[in-house]
Amino acid sequence: MTLTADNKGRVTAAEIFTPGKSFETIKLSTGQIIMSELTRKEPPTLRVRRVNGKLRGAAVELSREVVAAAVRSERDSR
Known about the structure:
The chain has one helix spanning 64-77, and strands at residues 22-27, 33-38, 49-51, 54-56. By secondary structure, the protein is of the alpha+beta class. The chain has one domain (22-77).
């Protein structure tokens, strides 16, 4: 399939680019362009529990270091 951009740099292909979808684009030094469709992940849900009559979320205490490491690992995996 050959795609041609218009004078404003827009490319259209109804079979590939459906409305409302997001794509990540990488341009390589060889002139190749790689596009990957981005998908949304459902966030994990926590079961609510009662502690001393109050509603609480996770049963695990989180430290700043654990949260920072989790954020870094997720960011690096993208």
